[in-house]
UniProtKB/TrEMBL annotation:
Stretches for region Disordered: 34-63
Family: Belongs to the glycosyl hydrolase 31 family.
InterPro entries assigned: Gal_mutarotase_sf_dom (IPR011013), GH (IPR017853), Glyco_hydro_31_C (IPR048395), Glyco_hydro_31_TIM (IPR000322), Glyco_hydro_b (IPR013780), P_trefoil_dom (IPR000519), P_trefoil_dom_sf (IPR044913)
Keyword field contains S-adenosyl-L-methionine: no
Gene3D superfamilies: Glycosidases, glycosyl hydrolase (family 31), Golgi alpha-mannosidase II, Spasmolytic Protein, domain 1
Name of the molecule in the record: P-type domain-containing protein
Keywords: Disulfide bond, Glycoprotein, Glycosidase, Hydrolase, Membrane, Signal
Molecular function per GO: alpha-1,4-glucosidase activity; carbohydrate binding
Subcellular location: Membrane
Amino acid sequence: MNASNLPLLLIIFSLQTNFVYLSLSYDRDQGDYDCGEDDTSDSQTCQMRSRPKEDHKSQIPRDPLIDCHPDKNVNQDSCTARGCLWNEDNDATNAPSCIYPEGHGYLVRGEITQTNNGLEAELERIKTPKIYDSEIYDRLVVTAEYQTESRLRIRIAPVGVKRYEVPKEAVDIPSPETPPSGDRLLYDVTLVEGKPQFGIIVKRKGESVAVFSTDLPGMTYSDQFIQITTRLPSDNLYGFGEHNHRRFRHDMNWKTWSIFTRSIGPIEPDNLYGAHPVYMNIENDGRASVVLLKNSNAMDITLQPSPNPAITYRVIGGILDFYIFMGPSPEQAVQQYIQAIGRPVMPPYWSLGYHLCRWGYKDIEDMKMVINRTRAAGIPYDGQWVDIEYMYKYYDFTYDRKKWTALPEVVQDLHENNQRFVVIIDPGIGANRTIIEEAAVNSPGYNMFDDGVQQDIFIKNESNKVLIGEVWPGVTAFPDFTNPKTQDWWLKWMNFLYHEENIKYDALWIDMNEPASFVHGSTEGCKHTRWNYPPYTPHVAGSEVDGKIYERTICMDYIQHWGRHYDVHSLYGHSEAIQTYNSLLMQSPDKRPWTMTRSSFVGTGKYATKWMGDNESRWSNLHWSIVSIMEFSMFGFSMNGVDICGFWYEAEYEMCLRWHQLGAFYPFARNHNGRWKEQIFRHQDPAAWDQRFVDIVKPVLMTRYRLLPYLYTLMYKAHEEGHMVMKALLFEFPTDRNTWSIDRQFLLGPALLISPALEPNQTIVEAYFPKARWYEYNQGNEIIPGGTTHNLYTPLNKFNLHIRGGHVIAVQKPSTTTYESRKNPMGLIVALDEDQLSNGQLFLDDGQSLETSKNNKSTIIQFKMMKAGELLIQSVINNFKGAEDLYIKSIDIYGLNRIPSDVQINHESVDDSNIRQSGQIIQILNLSIKLTNKALITWMIY
């Protein structure tokens, strides 16, 4: 149904699906409520009358069960006092005991209006009791806006009331100037007028499948408690973050996940560093949709299992602002989402190399030892990072001139060896007067806190008093990165470290930006307000005891430029990432900014890349790392990773080795470990172990460097088109149900499959290979048959990497830095599909300049097989001068299985001595094909 023939009113009470209600009526003359003579149903004392002649069990709806008492101490009396039903015979594990009856919510008031780009209606609350002590809104306006053919926005807000919304400066998904054509929409939208309650139903165009359906009881809209439930077409649910989900496809068995940025290690399934209220749902035929709730307030997400899968949102502020992306494939749905929120930042080429860091370098000599032994071992290595110990007493943008005396010289040495240096920066600005004076002696001219007070950029309360918390420097103040004035101040002190302190960093690593504080709220605590102690407290870490929401962060009632901290808390790291990106760009206008952040929000990937925080040196964290990176790929972060070998605790030999075999294929590969108070964990960089460790790890890291042209091209496609880099198998094989739950394997782009060993003493890896031609990377052996699980023999010195038929991958002879590797000869991997065909692409630029693809400074090479045995190489764009110096020296063909009798390049035969077979790989060697010249390679099999 298109916009021209949508019915204005539709009462839906359908028996065509298994979503069937046993109807209850709540007309006052039927005596369902005893609310007193004033006929107000807002009273907490409004009690539900019993119906002695009616079977209580018959009142329990068979549709999704919506919890009417999600807080603590539920019993039958407290349940019925809310006008809800006591589900005493519930037989589903963890299902709610107190549930909403039908008729609790809103009805359409007046007529549904058809606008030039959608539908609009005013809603009126059904007179049922409110649940929490928060002003409830009787009238709402709902707008369904057709934004694109595949994107729909549904906005629900109170009539005549201005409420906080996520600012456009944070996330801007603009409405189109011209509405999309109704005939081309991928969706139909129905506003359900009435009884038992209002709802919104979004279906695929001309079909019965509802991807979003809210015509369920329990919709509540009050000042500090908003609730809505939507049915799902299946229980194949992915997304919502940031948490340690432990699995990629969600456990739907009444799981509740809280979303609210928090400084806490990814150990238990608590709310972690980022806030991403977005999910993907795969329908039973493999089609998918993505749904975003653009809201930055704290919330709970409760998942309900089959046979009636559903999601209930409980949000404590803002508005309901949904964006629905219709796909129809999972890859398309996620791509549409990423394009809407902002495509990922393009990282510099060197960032794709291998990196080393630790929190626990004793001094500059300790770090120099690691640098030197890594170089001596010949391990590829591009980035050296430092954690907080380099600072003078943890004061931002300083370095300790006693323990780290030669730091500028070490940074210079790194640069002279074509390596890079990255420093950590925390948002907590030291405010201790004694240490400020000491820091000014250590770093002449340093007065960052006083300058911040003078510039008026710190977070303050309504009485204009700066909030003081406590982080690594001791007492600290927190910059308000939502304030545009903070930009110049932040840049000034970045320049202080770079120029005055002479620390020529190449990127910034922003940490502790949830924001984290070691005291709850502030050094003076927090006032007992409705912001610090909301009527409903989501199940966020730390709120379990007394309902406070500010544990290990700052008070919720303090004021920022974008709004009260209560509303913008989860935007703190996001706003810092924006200002850090902009500052780096102003600092070096011709250089591509690179920022690594811990905290994030919807769209942060446009400004920063992401690592997963303080993981543990435990075997379980290897598997979790795959899940978390695949999730953040969906959230719009093309470059993300997990600390290889783990951050907390001491790594085991075998675990650290296996982790390198896994982490070598992370989009971001960094070995980083920590300390615990005075206990400094052992070094875990590869050269810290023994020669056997180096001999096993070095080849897999060299493999990463050999594949960097392919990985960099994936980053380009993510930046330009919103593709994912590391992703689950289901995105390439959405109709293969076996892939829907796979999270112990992953893909890099469409062509590379990684199946790591994740358990101690493991020598057999059970790996699933979807229907396609797959080849083992080192020997070229084909995995037969496809569409089944194979046991891969994986001793300690082996890693599992397979290439998918149908893809051409550009490779480059690896060196120990990306700088040297980029000058080396190129090669091609040609993996043939069932039709003996293969295609691919290569993106090239200088690896560091901003927006080279838009400034005519890049080159794109296309590899295309016109027919079996005929590969065409040609440049689509050729504006990067460095590409002129690159030559293809070898071609490896997977899937021929025997040496071809005649190989020609531009119709000239290749000498037979340059054609050989290595394992099952046909190699054409000693070539000299200029990369940017058009070339035709042909071969014949007789």
